[in-house]
Amino acid sequence: MFEIDELVIAFIISLVATWILTPQVKKLAVLIGAMDVPDHRKIHTVVTPRLGGLAIYLGVIAGFIYLQPTFTYFWPIMIGTFVIIITGILDDIFQLKPVYKLAGQVIASGILIYSGLLIEKITIPIIGIVPLESFSILITFLWIIGITNAINLIDGLDGLASGVTTIALTSIAVMAFVDVRVAVFMYCIVLIGSNFGFLYHNFHPAKIYMGDTGSMFLGYSVAVISILGLFKNVTLFSFIIPIIVLAVPIFDTLFAIVRRAFKGENIMMPDKFHIHYQLLAAGFSHRMTVLIIYAFSTVFGVLAILFSNATLSASLIITLIVLVLLHIFAEIVGAVNGKKPVLRMLRKTLNKVNK
């Protein structure tokens, strides 16, 4: 059990360590050629160092060195994150083919599954706890791989992936604090601290990008934390809570897969129809686009917190709100129709506020 003052110190250590190390990682990125070169698919127009995720990772390690955690699965998680970091570094330098990146993710996921960290059950109202039994390995594998890539795909604007994961982690931390899940709360705290330290250098205009080193590390970490802290919950609709927390990256990824499938395109190939690209195309500034997505993420995070301890009737109301928000989200990314009236209304409203 950790005291609150110890967790505050760990948060500060992670934040300061990442803040100090990021400029050094930037120099390393330039030295080894881990640079993000602009092309037709990217927003930025200047060659920018990536590899910033290494600084986030080192900040987390610094926080853990201070706390010296001993919770179950700690070392399998650390070994898995190390595999992810190595995969990310190689990709940031050499631009690996998707199959090689997936191989690294599969190895990291396999390490956790072999250690016994699984999504073993879900809770459904009236029915109660439903054991997943033989399906637990497959579902755990798909969850880790899916969330890792969802965060990776949303990393398209300055500060976007760091901010969205920070909001998700904050929501999970609140629920972990209420449920007295010390390991989950501790893990969230050091990750949030590292993200804040990196955001100082990464918010628009970014001096460095996190690269796949960072987006895959954050995605993998959020997936693991959600298994530890959300799927282990026995509240109503326990399996829906992590989906609400991570609604923005999850549904942005799902809509992208459906969109590409309908167009007959390779679902693994990137495009410019993610939510951040659509908001930019609608005329919003870089910063405003990021802040709008932050707002979406915050609303979903708050709804997840409310959902975690809601009654059945309250859960149904929150579910309805979530579905309405997802419809708006789908419309913005063009999954509903091409007219996008909500997006036009949002732009007009913000223009009036700015005036």
Automatic annotation (TrEMBL):
Keywords per UniProt: Cell membrane, Magnesium, Membrane, Metal-binding, Transferase, Transmembrane, Transmembrane helix
Annotated organism of origin: Aquibacillus salsiterrae
GO biological process, one term: cell wall organization
GO molecular function terms attached to this record: metal ion binding; phosphotransferase activity, for other substituted phosphate groups
PANTHER family registered for this protein in UniProt: PHOSPHO-N-ACETYLMURAMOYL-PENTAPEPTIDE-TRANSFERASE, UNDECAPRENYL-PHOSPHATE ALPHA-N-ACETYLGLUCOSAMINYL 1-PHOSPHATE TRANSFERASE
Pfam families hit by this protein: Glycos_transf_4 (PF00953)
Name of this protein: Undecaprenyl/decaprenyl-phosphate alpha-N-acetylglucosaminyl 1-phosphate transferase
Membrane-crossing segments per the record: 6-25, 46-67, 73-90, 125-145, 157-178, 184-203, 215-231, 237-258, 279-307, 313-338
CDD domains named among the record's database cross-references: GT_WecA_like (cd06853)
Main location: membrane
